[in-house]
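Input.
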Amino acid sequence: MSRLPFAWVRRLAAALPLLAAACAVSQPDVPLRRFTAGDLEAVRTFAAREVENGDAENLALVMAVQAQCDLLAGRLDDARKTFDAVGQMMGTWATSGGEATAAILGSESSKTWKGDPYEKAMAAFYLAYCYLQKGEPDNARAACKRGILADGEVADEKYQADNALLFWMAGRMSVLMQNADADGFFREAAQAHSFALGHGARGDAGAAPIATPRAGNVVLVCECGMGPEKYGDGAQEELARFRPRYHPAVKARASVGGRSLGTSTILNDVDYQARTLGGTAMEGIREGKAVFKTASTVAGIVLLEQASRDRGHSRQAQAITGGALLLLGLLTSTAADVRHWPTLPATVQVLVADLPPGPHTVTVEFLDASGRVLPTLTQTRTVVVPNRGEVWQLFRSLPLGAATAARKP
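Output.
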């Protein structure tokens, strides 16, 4: 047998990674500048168009963006229905045989996007908020429980659930339901908060909602900044890592009729949640694939080279085995799946106050790192406090202005 045509092998080596990459599904090009400018309708239109005509593997992702726009625009029923569907897609772990193969041999992004744990937790929080606004604290608490499970479990591995916001909200829902398990949720919230702070999350150890979890009848949820960007790092872009997106808003403060209600406190550092669970768990998986790719490719080349020199009966077996290993190595894409939910906030903060029943004009100002007011982000809204129970309002550090002023509480 003549010497193997290694020029052909080199051409194959160059072509196959392109073939594998072509099977990958890319991050949807969500118009983030429109989002940070407060143009929710433009972003929702983009997401709705992607739902209809985009990659099917990205369906849950673009639906999450669509639902978030509906929520911020006050279309609570639409948001609730979509978040419910998104949660079901995110919570379905079973994959088809084709998806499983693609995840092993192709780019990780060739499979259906189901979100990282921090994204599942945020979807659960938004669904819980929508159910609460519908007057269903039982369903809101159930959504919180789903988010808590998603926050602490990845495949067959279990981690410390450290999303204090979900535990705290579940406790508040139990109070509304007059359920005896509220104190248990509040204890879990305190433990989650302490654990997160001890592992690098931003926040205040003496956060008022954690210290006095039952206090107040007005809950202002203030989302600050823009959530992290996911990117591929490493020699073969095999590591899924997160970096923060810059946004000036880092805190909020509220007032009623010129009387200060105080400043918000972080109960969910989204940047931390992404970095410490989603990022770390995925890095190890992707790093292993990179080692496998390198070893398979090198072994295949060595066997093919050996086959080209041998004259014995083993030459054919070496050529077949070497070719198989080379193809497997070349077809194994190590590029990490960098798809992510880009319109999430950097932090979710809470401010709780006591106000007499009836309508109140609440003003929320967002502050930069120096404590200066960002005037274009200031929002004023009428909040009606019930005779019994409590009222929740969600604010986002976007220039929404008058668009949210007339929103129903």
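Residues 1-6, 92-108, 278-292, 402-409 have pLDDT under 50 and may be disordered.
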